[in-house]
Amino acid sequence: MSAALFSLAGKNAIVTGANTGLGGAIAVALAQAGADIAAVGRTNPSGTEAQVKSAGRKFHWIEADLRSTKHAARIVGECVERLGGVDILVNNAGTIKRADAIEFSEADWDEVMDVNLKSAFFLAQAAARHMLDTGRRGKIINIASMLSFQGGIRVASYTASKSGLAGLTRLMANEWAAKGINVNAIAPGYFETNNTEALRQDPVRSRDILARIPAGRWGKPDDLGGAAVFLASSASDYVHGTILAVDGGRLAR
């Protein structure tokens, strides 16, 4: 099999939430495979920028608050202006709020749904419009979750948003596959990120989680890089609407 199947040379990728954690690791992996990167978020992703540039790729930060959908068209337009087009979109940005379902507030529900689901859909819509208008083959990768398959506890809006994102991934694949746009998702397992810090600091929850991961460890952000490159590259041209679990085998358990 030719390594060219996995090459992203000449491609431009938008990655949301690329300042740290999973998004930063994905952006760096795509850059190492040859893509130029437009990173979207509220804070300057200087660490990710340094790694992308060290890989010899271009980097542009698009400042945007993804609690609002009003930025979607601007994000795509700015990437087109600065990098020359959009070939890949990674909807990674996400937030989480924890409370018992009986006490969960409407404000926490709305904020999580707006970032994790609503903005992801409308950014995908804006990117797809550009791809269709320019006749370029496109790859859209949504970052789902184990809670796209399971219920979880104390994260009502997060579970709803990630279950919805899995459903939208399939819907968009159904509508856009024949038009040259692949839409798929990655469902990370339990990774060492800011979002899981509370779980990792809880000895009982951390023990219980590790007991159900055949690999015997929490995932590291770099563990997602290969899956992201695969779904962004020509190697996945006949892969549509899949939710790829990168979870250390947890769903198998």
Structure characterization notes:
It contains eight helices and seven strands. The chain has 253 residues and is α/β, with parallel strands linked by helices. It has one domain (3-246): Rossmann fold. The protein has a seven-stranded parallel beta sheet, sandwiched between helices. Helix 1 (21-32) links the parallel strand 1 (12-16) and strand 2. The longest helix is centred in the middle third of the chain and has 29 residues, at 106-134. The mean pLDDT is 96.
Along the chain, the helix and strand elements come as: EHEHEHEHEHEHHHE
Content of β-strand: 15-25%
| Helix/sheet category | alpha/beta
Describe the main β-sheet briefly: 7 strands, parallel
**What number of structural domains do the residues give?**
1
In DSSP terms, counting alpha (H) and pi (I) runs of 4 or more, how many helices? 8
CATH homologous superfamily title: NAD(P)-binding Rossmann-like Domain
Annotation, overall tally of beta strands: 7
CATH third-level topology? Rossmann fold
List the helices and strands and how they pair.
Layout: E1 12-16, H1 21-32, E2 36-41, H2 46-54, E3 59-63, H3 72-83, E4 88-91, H4 106-134, E5 138-143, H5 156-176, E6 181-188, H6 197-201, H7 203-211, H8 225-232, E7 243-246
Parallel strand pairs: 1-2, 1-4, 2-3, 4-5, 5-6, 6-7
Helix pairs in contact: 1-2, 1-8, 3-4, 4-5
Question: What's this, in brief?
Answer:
With 253 residues, the chain is α/β, with parallel strands linked by helices.
